[in-house]
Each structure stands twice: as C-alpha cells, then as structure tokens.
C-alpha cells in the first residue's frame, strides 16, 4: 500500500498521536538497522509512516543516528514525501521557544557522519543539486496547512546543523549568526542531503525549544525547559500534518 507521507520524529516525538490501524515494520537496509521500526497507519484519511529518529526510547544521540538506514527504510516502504521534525535552538530574535519554523536553507557544521549513499564500494557517484536543500512544494504545503490549522509558522530561515550532543558555546553561536544561521540543531544533516540523493521530497518542521547559547536572557540552557517547550510545540505537529493530508 502506498504511503502519502513519512514523518521522522525528533526529540520529544517518539510516536505519532492519532495514528490508527498502526502496524510496525522492521526494515533491513544495506546500511544496517534504522533507528527503530517504521510504524505505518491511517491519519487524516491518508497513509502515514512514522519513524523516531533517536529511537522510541531516545537512545541514539544525533551523531549516532543511522541517517542512511532511516531514509532508505522509508524509501523502501514506498514513501516519496518526508517531513523531518527537528528540535532546534533559536538564534534569530523572532525564533524563541515554541516557535515553529519551516527553514529554507542549511549550513552543515557536522563531521564524521555518513553523508552520502555513494560511500559504498561500486555505487554510482551522484553530485546532487542542493542549492535549495528542501523541496519547495512540500515547504509551501506545510506552510499553507499550518495557516489552515491556525498554527503560526515562520516561512524560511537558515538551519545550522551542529555535531552535538553537547549544546554550543556562545562563541560558536555568535559565529553561526555571522554566517547567517537563524536556527541551530543537531539532526538536520545529513538527513536532508540523503533524502535528495534518493529523490525524496523533503522538508523540515523546526520546533524551537530554547534560545541558542547567548541569544536569550538566560545564563544557562536548562534541559527541563527545552523538553517543556518542545512538548508544547510538538502538540501542534499533528494539527499541521493533519491539515496538509486532509487538504
Ligand atoms: N543547539 C543545538 N541543538 C538544539 C538546541 C540548541 O540550542 N536546542 C534544541 N536542539
């Protein structure tokens, strides 16, 4: 059965609320195991596949996520449109806790991750165009759906992908701001590039959990606060995706 939308859940989103007739599948990939089973079910009258990026018990840190296996598994099951839900820190003033952003650009500061399906011996070398790292039509659909659902969402912003799992220093964030980053997160890459290699449509729903280091009033970033803000923003995700699928 075809899949209308695949969702990769980030921190705070370990199963998809409201998914009916759910069925779990473990998918073998040439790149090893995905973060967990893909759970497929009915949502808003359509077929949705869900995968928890960090595992359902959040056991995988950002640099240990098998991004290749995750994208491969979703593709293998027939997904062609993928929304990555990512917890982020806000760098831009209007991107404070609980704000939802649909970014349009990426700067990649990660290292030591498998960034391409061409790493495999004998694989065809592909130089994908990545000028626009997210699929424009899917971004538009997400933003239109958010508007229909009455959920405020900011159109555009540059996602800076850091290695984690630690948060950044103030100097690192100041540099990222100078570079043009509006948001900082640990999981946006290489996911977006791998999706493009597989010719999947891909866009990001970035949920701001905190102001990034040095951007808010706080001396320190509290993990408890991050998760409280994330829980609030995460509750809006099914509203947006439901409106998108129903529309
Ligand atoms: N930095 C990096 N990743 C994050 C942050 C942050 O401040 N908040 C949530 N994910």
From TrEMBL:
InterPro entries listed in its UniProt record: MTAP (IPR010044), Nucleoside_phosphorylase_d (IPR000845), Nucleoside_phosphorylase_sf (IPR035994), Purine_phosphorylase-2_CS (IPR018099)
GO molecular function annotation: glycosyltransferase activity
Source organism superkingdom: Bacteria
Keyword Transport among record annotations: no
Chain residues that bind substrate: 186, 210-212
Site entry (Important for substrate specificity), positions: 168, 223
Domain Nucleoside phosphorylase: 5-237
Binding site for phosphate: 11, 53-54, 187
Keywords carried by this UniProt record: Glycosyltransferase, Purine salvage, Transferase
Pfam family name, one: PNP_UDP_1
Keyword Membrane: no
Enzyme class: transferase
Reaction(s) the record says it catalyses: S-methyl-5'-thioinosine + phosphate = 5-(methylsulfanyl)-alpha-D-ribose 1-phosphate + hypoxanthine
Pathway(s) per entry: Purine metabolism; purine nucleoside salvage
Sequence similarity: Belongs to the PNP/MTAP phosphorylase family. MTAP subfamily.
Subunit organization: Homotrimer.
Further details from the record: Although this enzyme belongs to the family of MTA phosphorylases based on sequence homology, it has been shown that conserved amino acid substitutions in the substrate binding pocket convert the substrate specificity of this enzyme from 6-aminopurines to 6-oxopurines.
Function: Catalyzes the reversible phosphorylation of S-methyl-5'-thioinosine (MTI) to hypoxanthine and 5-methylthioribose-1-phosphate. Involved in the breakdown of S-methyl-5'-thioadenosine (MTA), a major by-product of polyamine biosynthesis. Catabolism of (MTA) occurs via deamination to MTI and phosphorolysis to hypoxanthine.
Official protein name in the record: Probable S-methyl-5'-thioinosine phosphorylase
């Amino acid at each position: 059965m075809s899949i209308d939308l695949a969702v990769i859940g980030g921190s705070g989103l370990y199963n998809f609320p409201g998914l009916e007739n759910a069925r779990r599948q473990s998918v073998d990939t040439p790149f090893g195991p995905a973060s967990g089973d893909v759970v497929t079910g009915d949502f808003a009258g359509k077929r949705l596949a869900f995968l928890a990026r960090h595992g359902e018990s959040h056991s995988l840190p950002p640099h240990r996520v098998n991004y290749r296996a995750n994208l491969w598994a979703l593709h293998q099951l027939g997904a062609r449109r993928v929304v990555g839900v990512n917890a982020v820190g806000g760098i831009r003033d209007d991107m404070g806790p609980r704000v939802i952003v649909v970014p349009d650009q990426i700067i990649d500061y990660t290292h030591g991750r498998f960034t391409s399906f061409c790493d495999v011996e004998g694989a065809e070398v592909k130089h994908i165009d990545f000028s626009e790292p997210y699929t424009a039509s899917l971004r538009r659909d997400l933003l239109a759906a958010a508007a229909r659902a009455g959920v405020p969402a900011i159109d555009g912003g540059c996602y800076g992908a850091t290695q984690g799992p630690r948060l950044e220093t103030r100097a690192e964030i100041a540099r990222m701001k100078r570079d043009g980053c509006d948001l900082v997160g640990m999981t946006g890459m290489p996911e977006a590039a791998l999706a493009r290699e597989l010719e999947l449509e891909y866009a990001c729903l970035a949920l701001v959990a905190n102001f990034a280091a040095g951007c808010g009033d706080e001396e320190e970033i509290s993990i408890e606060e991050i998760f409280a803000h994330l829980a609030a923003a995460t509750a809006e995700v099914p509203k947006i995706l439901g409106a998108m699928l129903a529309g």
